Structures are given as C-alpha cells and as structure tokens.
Amino acid sequence: MASSDSQSAPTTGANSSSASTPPSSGSGTGSSTNPSPFAHGVFLPNGANSDPPLPANDPTIGYKLNHFMLRIREPKRTMHFYIDLMGMRTVFTLNVGPFTIYYLGYPQTEVHRADVPKFGLDTAMNLQSTLGLLELYHVHGSEKQPDGYYQTGNSPPNLGFGHLGFTVPDVKGALDRLKAEGVEVVKDLGEVGLRSIPISEWENERGVGQEEVGTATEIHKEYKKVFSKIAFVRDPDGYIVELVPQNVDPLDP
C-alpha cells in the first residue's frame, strides 16, 4: 500500500510484507492516487520477490543480454560520438551489401586499452559471451534521407524506446566535455521533473504520467536526489544517451 506521506524517504522492501507482495493478476492499477502496485518511493531489490529461482537445468541458463542495435544514417558522425566522445572502440565492421554493421564495445583491461586491434580481435572471437556491446546499423542510402527519417522513440506520438545508459566516473566532467563538442543536452545536472524524465505534455494530455503534488503520483523526493545527479544528451541520430555516476547508491542517495 502507498505511504501515508507521499514524500517519505524510500526504504528497501526486504522486510516489508506489503512492499514485497506480488501484484495481482487483475488490472494492477492500485488506487486512484497510486496506480502502481508498489509502495511509493520504496526501493525493491528483486521487485516483488516473486521471481522463481533458476535451477541448474533451466533451459535459459547461459542466456545473456549481449548487445543493443540502433539504426543510424551517417556512420562518420555517429562513430565520432561513440568512439571519440564516449570512449568505445570498434570490435568489428561488416559490409553485408544493403547495409553495414558496426559493433562497438569498451576495452576492459590495460592490455586491450593499449592494443585496440587485439581488443577487437579478442572480443570478436568471444562475441557471443561478451556483454554491453552496441551494434550500429547503417542501411545504405539512409544517409540521403532527411532528419527524422528514423524515429528514436521519444517524440510523440512515436513513443517507445527510451535511452542508452552509460555509467561514468564523473558525470559533470563528461557532460562539460560533450557540451564543448556541441552535443545537445536533453537534461542537465540538477534538473528534475516530468519534462526531464522525459514525460511529455502529449502524454499528460492523454492522462498518462500525470503528477499531482502531495499524492503518490508526485515524483518521490529521494528519487529526485538520485535523478538530479544524472544527465541526458542526444547522439547524432537523436537517440537519448544517459550519463549515470558510478558511485550512486540507490539505497542512500
């Protein structure tokens, strides 16, 4: 059930029976003031604690979230952003015919950071077991299309995909460097609120993501503390990139 004080500090749900109760199979909309099945502002490791354990013979053992793919229009400018500005390095490229694939990743060792060709070869040889890769997908001819040819998921009414999240040691330093390179800032440090999440006016007009101060629909004050330390920028194709500090503790913002 929702906290009686909508702005009380969040707690973990480990010892809270109400917080750990799985949502029902019904509408799951809670009350009119708390449409979520979970208590307002309560950080819940493992969610509702309703996930089943994974036995050794489970058919999904070995599954990994390996990569994410984005369609791009102009590889040169996109590679500049992710390689020169975000520090990724090329794992491999492949011209398939109608399109070219660019796989990027982060070197994780001093050896790989010093010897990028070795990083590319080693990672390509272990591609299926590597986590956190980015696939950039350039369909030949798309570079001749106008801006907006590809939807990024954050412009009404074509909402869907949200952002790519990168953790960085120093968000301010990273943001200042990106600003100096002319990168568009979507959300600066210190900003909080619906528009910076972003939840659009278009959604609000349709009764989606509305916030009412003093109720369980208000953005929780402790989440605001965490969110104020996060920044969003826009990559050359319009996709939102999130910069998250590596030293943020969600339990002690």
Reconstruct the topology from this structure.
Layout: H1 17-20, E1 67-72, H2 75-85, E2 89-95, E3 99-105, H3 110-114, H4 116-125, E4 133-139, E5 154-155, E6 158-159, E7 164-168, H5 171-180, E8 184-187, H6 201-204, H7 221-227, E9 231-234, E10 240-245
Parallel strand pairs: 1-4, 7-10
Antiparallel strand pairs: 2-3, 3-4, 5-6, 8-9, 9-10
InterPro entries: Glyas_Bleomycin-R_OHBP_Dase, Glyas_Fos-R_dOase_dom, VOC_core
Protein name: VOC domain-containing protein
Region (Disordered): 1-55
Characterize the structure shown.
With 253 residues, this protein is of the alpha+beta class. It has three domains: 1-62, no CATH class; 64-150, 2,3-Dihydroxybiphenyl 1,2-Dioxygenase, domain 1 (Roll), CATH 3.10.180.10; 162-253, 2,3-Dihydroxybiphenyl 1,2-Dioxygenase, domain 1 (Roll), CATH 3.10.180. Helix content is 20%, strand content 20%. It has seven helices and ten strands. The strands form three sheets. It has a four-stranded mixed β-sheet with strand order 1-4-3-2. Strands 7-10-9-8 form a four-stranded mixed β-sheet, with helices on one face. Strands 5-6 form a two-stranded antiparallel ribbon. The radius of gyration is 21 Å and the shape is globular. The two termini are 23 Å apart. The model is unreliable at 1-32 (pLDDT under 50). InterPro entries: Glyas_Bleomycin-R_OHBP_Dase (IPR029068), Glyas_Fos-R_dOase_dom (IPR004360), VOC_core (IPR037523). It comes from Exophiala bonariae. Residues 64-246 form the VOC domain. Residues 1-55 are annotated as: Disordered. This is VOC domain-containing protein.
